[in-house]
Design goal:
heterodimer, A: alpha+beta, Heat Shock Protein 90, five-stranded antiparallel β-sheet, 5 helices, 5 strands, B: alpha/beta, Transcription Regulator spoIIAA, 44% helix
């Protein structure tokens, strides 16, 4: 069995400053591994879009007073030539439905269809109420060139633990 | 001129050379607040060039240099809005010269530029930055 090397593991609240710390840690790890700039940039794009999506959601819900709701569990690991990126956070039913709907649509699209959707949204899309451009998941799918795996685990009647999982082959 | 920070690019405009330049990382905490300053300025510049056109002034070249090392998807939307403004200048008859720099080996940044160039339908000059 190939050995999995954990490069970044973070559990705790997510703020703009924590995102920066995690991105600095990514740069350190890439330098240590002597990774190519192309691979570093691909992981950077995926990490930023995942973490900023979660951060915008947390801020829009104003749940910072609730420690559990603003927490994430983030991991970046490497097995052979595959990087695994995963993040888990708590979302409400409304967000769960939106995420599921967007990811199911994106996962069905071919690379050309993804490109078309990207162009349509960048040219015509409005900023979301959370301040995003609605391009995050498309950017992740385009960059990883693989399906976006996700799951929801019920926490109670309203909230679920949402996990997004990406694999990036170098 | 807007100075660069860890999360935002340097943005400058030289009235002598008419060069608009962006350099650095673009991942602002509030992307609208950051880029609205640039878009407001660009709107003013567009009006100035429109007046120049109406008055029969010389149609000079507008030079834009993008030297991003990274930009997030929300910034991509804002860059596209700026490109729409540049497209209007092109349609007024001004010559556009857009240089898109990327680090050697950073195919991702090259492809991101290509994507924006194709989406707005304006050719970019792709250059490796030293």
């Amino acid at each position: 069995m190939p050995e999995q090397k954990m490069l970044i593991e973070y559990k705790g609240s997510l703020t703009f400053s924590i995102i920066s710390q995690l991105l600095n840690k990514l740069k350190e790890q890439m330098d240590l591994l002597g990774e190519k700039i192309f691979t570093y940039k691909r992981i950077l794009i995926i990490m930023v879009e995942i973490l900023e999506n979660i951060h915008k959601y947390i801020e829009s819900q104003q749940v910072n007073d609730n420690a559990t709701a603003s927490e994430i569990n983030f991991k970046l690991a490497k097995t052979d030539n595959i990087y695994q990126i995963s993040a888990t956070n708590l979302v409400n039913v409304e967000a769960r439905n939106i995420i599921q709907c967007k990811l199911d649509l994106i996962n069905k699209l071919s690379p050309d269809e993804l490109k078309k959707l990207y162009r349509t949204i960048i040219a015509n899309g409005q900023f979301t109420k959370e301040g995003g451009a609605g391009l995050g998941f498309i950017e992740i799918a385009k960059t990883s060139q693989s399906k976006i795996h996700y799951s929801f685990e019920n926490a109670d009647d309203v909230f679920s633990y949402y996990t997004i999982n990406l694999e990036l082959t170098t | 001129m807007i100075e660069a920070t860890e999360f935002t690019p340097m943005v400058s405009f030289d009235p002598e050379t008419r060069i608009i330049e962006f350099d650095g990382v673009s991942r602002p905490e509030n992307v609208s607040a950051f880029y609205n300053r640039v878009i407001d300025w660009m709107t003013g510049y567009e009006s100035e060039l429109y007046k120049n056109k109406v008055l029969g002034g010389k149609k000079f070249e507008v030079n834009v240099i993008f030297k991003f090392s990274y930009f997030n998807s929300a910034s991509a939307k804002m860059i596209y809005i700026l490109l729409e403004s540049l497209l209007r200048l092109k349609n007024m008859g001004y010559t556009l010269n857009i240089d898109w720099y990327y680090e050697e080996g950073d195919d991702q940044m090259h492809d991101d530029g290509e994507e924006l160039s194709e989406a707005i339908d304006i050719p970019f000059n792709f250059m490796v930055r030293n």
